[in-house]
Write a structure and sequence with these properties.
By secondary structure, the chain is mainly alpha-helical. Helix content is about 65%, strand content about 10%. It folds into two domains: about 220 residues, Alpha-lytic protease prodomain-like; about 80 residues, Cation efflux protein, cytoplasmic domain (Alpha-Beta Plaits, 2-Layer Sandwich).
Length: about 325
């Protein structure tokens, strides 16, 4: 996995969640707090999720094969989608069930200092993990807002870790609130309500992750900035005069497929056209290094055909209509 995959953030989150999970289960054993149990399962699920992301990153590095000629880059998307499923089922649904049971059958907390101490420790640990994820994300997101970064990021690991850490921090605050109200009122129902809120939060985060990862699995095009760089790199103004139409597709977070039909001069020889195509491919790779699979088809641009209407296959926001 490349540095842009957020390996440092994943490892930091994994270490924090394992330590926090152990402390939460210990606190549950001594206090009987359902919030602690739900949070312990949440941290355990998060640890498994980070392990899945690391496995996905490793598998994505495999070389292409005749059966998979474009490689295994999308393995990272598959494992990120599995993370959303785990977060929904193991984390969210378990917490909702546990919260419902605690509301129906509340009992007073015992040894309250255990859950309170563990929650304070967990908030500190998760804050460090969240800070690492934010720091790595800032190196990639540029001027994008956090919402835009999560929606547009092609590498799934950092958005996953960001949302998980954010959900963990909010969940810890909810758990602390539930435990605090249960202690203040002597009514264990508040502990159950806190647990229920944690479950709902995790389900919502899992749904967002699933929706964003599904889009990546289906295949997303390059961003507008990259498309503009590729189009500018293709045209040399001599042999290659314009882009007739173009398609781009992410084969993985750091691997882009580019397929385009380009206009060449009608009186150029085959040798000149071939040399121009090779030069265009070199310029594309220099402008957008992740463009690793490039197919350029030369054609003759016809103004009369272009005036008949836009290319029905042209992508929205793509180059001007053309024909041959």
């Amino acid at each position: 996995m490349s540095a842009s995959g957020g390996t440092k953030a994943i490892v930091a989150a994994l270490g924090a969640n394992l330590a926090i999970a152990v402390s939460k289960f210990v606190a549950f054993a001594f206090s009987g707090s359902s919030s602690m149990l739900a949070e312990g399962v949440h941290s355990l699920a998060d640890s498994g999720n980070q392990a899945l992301l690391l496995v996905g990153g490793k598998k994505a590095q495999r070389e292409a094969t005749p059966q998979h000629p474009f490689g295994y880059g999308r393995e990272r998307y598959i494992y990120a989608f599995l993370v959303s499923i785990v977060l929904f089922s193991v984390g969210g649904m378990f917490a909702i069930y546990e919260g419902y049971e605690k509301i129906k059958h509340p009992h007073e907390l015992e040894h309250w200092y255990w859950p309170v101490g563990v929650l304070v420790f967990a908030i500190i640990a998760e804050s460090f993990s969240f800070r690492t994820a934010i720091k790595e994300s800032n190196e990639l997101r540029g001027t994008l807002s956090w919402k835009e970064f999560v929606r547009r990021a092609k590498a799934p690991e950092l958005p996953v870790v960001l949302l998980e850490d954010f959900g963990a921090l909010v969940g810890l605050i909810l758990a602390l609130g539930g435990v605090g109200l249960a202690l203040a009122t002597g009514d264990g129902v508040w502990d159950g309500i806190g647990t229920l809120c944690i479950g709902i939060l995790l389900v919502l985060i899992a749904i967002v992750l699933a929706a964003e990862t599904k889009s990546l699995l289906l295949g997303e095009a390059a961003g507008l900035e990259e498309v503009e760089k590729i189009e500018a790199a293709i045209v040399d103004g001599d042999t290659v005069t314009r882009v007739i139409h173009m398609r781009t597709l992410h084969l993985g977070p750091e691997e882009l497929l580019v397929a385009a039909k380009v206009a060449v001069q009608h009186d150029d020889t085959a040798t000149e056209v071939a040399a121009a195509i090779d030069a265009a491919e070199t310029r594309i790779r220099a402008a957008v290094p992740i463009a690793r699979v490039i197919y350029l088809e030369p054609d003759i641009y016809s103004e009369s055909e272009a005036t008949k209407g836009a290319d029905p296959e042209a992508a929205p926001g793509g180059p001007a209509p053309a024909a041959h």
